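hey can u check if this looks right to u? its 318 residues, i copy pasted from the old doc so theres a chance i mangled smth
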Amino acid sequence: MDQGKGGKYFIYNKSYEGEVPVGYIPIETEGYQHWLLLRIVGQKADVTANIAKLKKTMKLYPYGTQAKTEFINLTDRQYNTVHAMNEKFFDEINTLIQYEPTEIWNQEWIALAQDLGIEKGKAFAPDERMKSVLVEAAKIATAEARSTYFYPEENMKVYDDRHWFTPLLSGHEFKDEHGVISVDERATFHFMATGITPDMVTNTVGKGSAYLLATRDASDDLLDGGEHYTVTLPKDVPVANFWSFMVYDNQTRSMLETDQKSAGVDGLSDKVRKNADGSVTIHFGPEAPKAGKETGTNNARQGIQRYFQSLWSNGGLV
């Protein structure tokens, strides 16, 4: 919106009756709660300087105040970023419906919530029979979401001879050419991710990105954290900014927690070692690869998922 020049944004709910202050870029919203997701993209040598610049120049505060923006390093902190997969998920839905304005929701969806006893302005207090229904419903919904994720439909696969797939082939709204939403693609994506944006699927040269997932190996077996896997990136992969691999725990749907600081590795890391032909081999396993040979990530002995991301400026992945 500011063409990369930076600027001041005035974010306000549509119920706001005041004036938009002069010099601000207005952003009107329908809901009350918002996320602001930012990513610093640069070269390896620029990372530290870019972080310092962001802290110095970015400010986020209630309009009319001069509150200091506090930046918190979450590297060594434990916190929950995933939604419940049991009956507590319905409590999360109730919290949203109670807090947000009703008009932002799909009205048919709201009607279904009311059938479960979730209604704005009323206490959500299911009786014993309904509690048992919600427990069973959560189990079935979780199993269905897992099945679409670990057994993805053919239309999600990126290659004919490999198991990399993405539910984003039809776009960030998961719609086909007729505007019909694929509920399986949407469920597959949001089973392992919360936020989504059009920028995740843009093909604009210099600003594009690509996201690939894998839950199976070359033999079509589910990935196992106790096994050893490799992925080799050819020399001069067409990514101008960076590529990265992240390993996710298929039980928590969050990044795998091991004795390593990070659950993945990226092209900006000093630990990346190139092979003699310029390619890079990434190792995934419960033990580190032999010293001096390859780049790797540590897996706990449990089910895992691989997630590959790239940002490019000169073309897409091949």
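The chain has a mean pLDDT of 83.
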